[in-house]
Write a structure and sequence with these properties.
1 helix; mainly beta; eight-stranded antiparallel β-sheet; six-stranded mixed β-sheet; 66 strands; Methylamine Dehydrogenase, Chain H; 762 residues
């Protein structure tokens, strides 16, 4: 069943936006971009829009807007095609990998057979046509037939090309019991009453040596795109329509008794009286006709556009709220807001993403790529923002751009200054490319960062506004592919090399401006010199106990005594440790061999670890696995986890993946500094409540006692960081009775305590 998402509406004419409401502990939410959509379908008054990252629906009659995702029951992501059967009110959702979901009456049925089938070559579904209770799927390997009522595959036709050759079917139409299939070398036809349509001898090539992408049977005629132009077939002859508005057909569908033709230059319709209407709308990907004869379209910019619309007879744009793009490479929680970096580095095989940053507050995303468009310093004029840092003294955000340098912004994401090779000592990596990849503030509010592929790869923006950069000689063989940077408790800078260089630990001495007292050491996988799991370093972070956690291409490396790096062997070994676990009789390294993309520390010093095979939550020391989320056992959209962020106020954990962002309501927040007020929710507890009660605003690792109003102890729990949970049951496991209960907590030394009240209604 699709779970209806409760929403509240932000209406800014002509845009319609929604934001998601926060769920309880253990719940999931999607945070996807809804601007760019390439496929659309309609059932009754409900319009569906799909993209490689998302699906949403809009009820044109009552204005309801709903996100549909893995959280609400979909089996997959990356939607390629939507097609609707009006008779059965059935929506086909086709994914890029060949998987299929059927949505009917708020129920989802998955048909994974094509996805699971072993096929040599490409496996794709290009289009669908409906006829006599069946759906005919045009596939890269032939034709697949689905019984709509039974929701199962009943037949397939392959190798139907000339001489039994395998050909890709691009689209299908059926007219007068004849099936027509378009291909890259012509249009094939066969009688549906033929004895065996899997036999190529029953198929005829009726239009040869021509590429045909789209075809539809409408008004007792065939309409097909042939060699870029729309043609009409009257069962005897093909007639080319010489009209530039019918050139290069993107989509061709029948909807509400009209043929809808989408080209780069226009959206046009033809009705049963052969009357042609041209909308004048350009650059659309697909369109449908609504029951009230309005047109609904999708493109790469506006979500769903419905026209004519509104009191001004213009257009209505329908867009659920979400980040600007599906990629997120870093998160920072600042002043009750979550900031996300929208960059996508070339070493993830794709670059030049002008996505700016996304800001999340009160369940709503704001995208900085759309602000301050009258200025030359707009976020979409820079690309690949990899990571963020916060200047809490001057209340500024700094962003590392893998191409444009160091970006200074205000808290709304408005760019104030860009440091690059033209106005500072920063160096370019390649022509017109100034690559900044890592950022971290020290205790004196100096911003340290890495200048990737530069001769002086370690830089600092002093709190007086000047930039200094430092040479490290030839320690990386001249290949200064530096990225993340962290600072340990000794004020040493730890710098990651993403190209098999290991970790550089840099000590600038007593005076940053004096390079003569500088010292540095390169840690590698050699025993006695770091014992890293791999020399390819993806991430590194200092935890709350001062340990340095390093994520490599082959597992975790943990430096429990980072202070020993420059002190020599007399102070003890500084080699890293791996987490060794025992499974049966076998000892092995936890996450050994895994590519560790990111590590994030929560309020309880637990580690959220993102890998190429899912996300892990482990205890503070790493030896206890608390959660392991994958795309199969959770709502995570993809196992390749690029980034993990935590809303320190609510404990919600955000996962940036290759296919989009989701969040999970976790149970650890930053501990309360003042410890003057705790929040308990839900409160009161109603009879039908199922789940855990959240207690927020605590000090770190405190004991929490729950008593009845007479002072009798009924339960105890403890906090993770500043967050604790209680299942509402007493020591014997029974649900507590109706009444008022007191929640007591005190900090470690007992100097402060706090009391909250909770009402149970059973």
């Amino acid at each position: 069943m699709i779970k209806k998402i409760t929403t509240y509406l932000f209406i800014f004419f002509p845009f319609l936006l929604i934001a998601q409401t926060e769920g309880g502990l253990g719940s999931w939410r999607v945070h996807l971009p809804y601007w760019q959509n390439k496929t659309i379908a309609v059932i009754g008054n409900t319009v569906y829009a799909g993209s490689p990252s998302s699906l949403f629906s809009y009820d044109e009659k009552n204005g309801d807007l709903e996100r549909i995702s893995k959280v609400t029951g979909l089996s997959d992501v990356e939607i390629k095609l939507l097609r609707s059967n009006q008779i059965n009110k059935l929506l086909f959702i086709v994914y890029e990998n060949g998987n299929i979901d059927l949505l009917q009456n708020n129920e989802i049925t998955n048909l994974p057979q094509i996805l699971q089938r072993t096929i040599i070559g490409k496996k794709a579904i290009n289009d669908i046509t409906f006829y006599n209770g069946k759906a005919y799927l045009a596939c890269s390997f032939g034709i697949v037939v689905i019984d709509i009522n039974k929701k199962q595959i009943i037949d397939s036709y392959q190798n139907i090309g000339v001489g039994g050759s395998n050909i890709e079917i691009l689209d299908i139409a059926i007219l007068d019991n004849y099936i027509y299939a378009t291909t890259n070398n012509g249009i094939y036809s066969a009688n549906l009453n033929s004895g065996n349509l899997s036999d190529f001898n029953f198929w005829s090539l009726i239009k040869s040596s021509s590429k045909s992408n789209k075809i539809e049977a409408f008004n007792n005629l065939l309409y097909a795109e042939i060699d870029s132009f729309l043609n009409v077939y009257d069962k005897n002859n093909w007639t080319k329509i010489n009209d530039v508005d019918f050139e290069n057909v993107f989509d061709l569908i029948i909807c509400n008794n009209k043929l809808v033709i989408t080209t780069i230059k226009n959206i046009s319709t033809i009705n049963s009286d052969k009357i042609i209407f041209k909308s004048g709308k350009k650059y659309k990907n697909s369109a449908v006709v609504l029951p009230n004869d309005r047109l609904a379209t999708v493109d790469n910019f506006y979500g769903i556009e419905v026209f004519p619309g509104g009191q001004y007879n213009g257009s209505d744009y329908i867009i659920p709220n979400g980040p600007f793009n599906k990629i997120t490479t870093d998160f920072k929680y600042i002043n009750n807001k979550l900031y996300a970096a929208g960059g996508y580095a070339p070493y993830y095989n794709e670059g030049f993403k002008p996505n700016g940053i996304y800001i999340y507050e009160n369940n709503n995303w704001t995208n900085t790529s759309n602000i301050d468009q009258n200025s030359a310093l707009t976020p979409d004029s820079i690309h690949d923002i990899l990571t963020l840092a916060y200047d809490n003294v001057n209340e500024k955000i700094y962003a590392a751009s893998y191409g444009n340098g160091l970006i200074k912004m205000d808290l709304n994401g408005k760019i104030e200054y860009i440091y690059n090779k033209n106005n500072s000592v920063l160096q370019e990596a390649f022509t017109n490319s100034c690559r900044v990849a890592g950022l971290v503030f020290d205790n004196e509010n100096n911003l340290w960062f890495t200048n990737h592929s530069s001769g002086q790869p370690i830089c600092v923006l002093m709190n007086d506004g000047t930039i200094k950069c430092f040479s490290i000689g030839n320690v990386f063989g001249g290949l200064n592919y530096v990225a993340n940077i962290a600072i340990d408790d000794e004020n040493h800078k730890w710098v990651a090399n993403v190209r098999d260089g290991g970790v550089l630990v840099y000590n600038h001495g007593l005076d940053v401006s004096n390079s003569t007292d500088d010292a540095y050491k390169v840690l590698t996988k050699d025993i006695g010199n770091g014992a890293l799991a791999s020399n390819t370093i993806n991430c590194l972070v200092k935890d709350k106990r001062g340990e340095m956690w390093v994520g490599t291409s082959a597992g975790l490396s943990i430096f429990s005594s980072p202070e020993n790096v420059f002190n020599g062997t007399e102070s003890g070994s500084f080699d890293s440790r791996q987490i060794v676990i025992k499974t049966g009789l076998v000892y092995s390294n936890f996450l050994g061999g895994e590519n560790i993309n990111c590590i994030t520390i929560d309020g309880a010093n637990r580690k959220w670890i993102g890998t190429n095979n899912g996300a892990w939550l482990v205890s503070s020391d790493g030896y206890t696995v608390i959660h392991n989320f994958t795309s199969k056992n959770s709502s995570i959209l993809d196992n390749n986890i690029l980034s993990i962020g935590i809303d320190n106020n609510t404990g919600e954990v955000f996962f940036g993946t290759l296919k989009g962002m989701v969040s999970y309501k976790g149970n650890a927040t930053e501990s309360g500094v003042d410890f003057n007020k705790i929040e308990i929710y839900p409160n009161p507890i109603k009879p039908n409540f199922i789940g855990d009660i959240s207690i927020k605003g605590l000090a770190e690792n405190v004991n929490v006692k729950i008593t009845d109003i007479a002072g009798n102890l009924v339960a105890e729990t403890s906090s993770n960081g500043g967050f604790a949970t209680w299942n509402g049951r007493n020591f014997s496991g029974s649900k507590v009775a109706t009444g008022v209960y007191l929640v007591f907590a005190a900090n470690k030394d007992g100097s402060k305590s706090i009391v909250g009240k909770l009402l149970f209604v059973n």
